[in-house]
Protein 1
Amino acid sequence: ETRRSARSPMKGHVEILVNGNRSQLVDLSISGAQALVPTRLRPGQSLRVALLDGSTEIRCKGVVAWSAAEPGHAAMRYRIGVQFVDPEKDVIEAFCVRYGARPDQTFGAA
């Protein structure tokens, strides 16, 4: 499967909110994201994501594309893939430039 857009891995720890829960952003693109979340979310589940940029919240709606448990930590956490629904592409691209590393071109992303 080819990704629709290049993913930018985050530089350091970038905190976001997923359904109001503090979570860690792993990577981000204009079409979706990967995050570590404290609660179990199921594929197909709708969710709200807030990218925290200083005092500003960039709000996105999305759907869980996949979810996997990450055992071995003090508290159970889950790694999820999110597909955004009608994202504000320019705003997300600016967030990627500010907080992301060089985009990952793996899997044929353009």
Note: The beta strands are 8-18, 21-28, 32-37, 46-53, 56-70, 77-85.
Protein 2
Amino acid sequence: LLLGWAGALVLGVSFRVLPTLTWHHRFATRMGRPGTPAMPAMLHRGLGITAATAGAVGLLVLVPGVAAGSASAARAGAVLFTLAITATILHHLRMLLIGRARPAASGTLP
């Protein structure tokens, strides 16, 4: 139960703290210049809601499923919790790609 609480805390905090630290590290010196993403652009609401919901429901199904010896409930909870971790990873990867220089679209080779 303590690990579930700690895992949920880490997932939740990482959605708020990591984007803030990343933005300050990468964009603070460019603040106000054209092309600099705003702080809210670092967050993806849909991925955050998916991770929070799947993580909470996954733990609420997984722990009682294991305690009751129900393989199907434990499996369903584990799948939901894995979805939460996957959404968190996607959110963090998306955050790292924001503001990266993209090569110019060109139809010819240099």
Note: The CA atoms of residues 42 and 98 lie 7 Å apart.
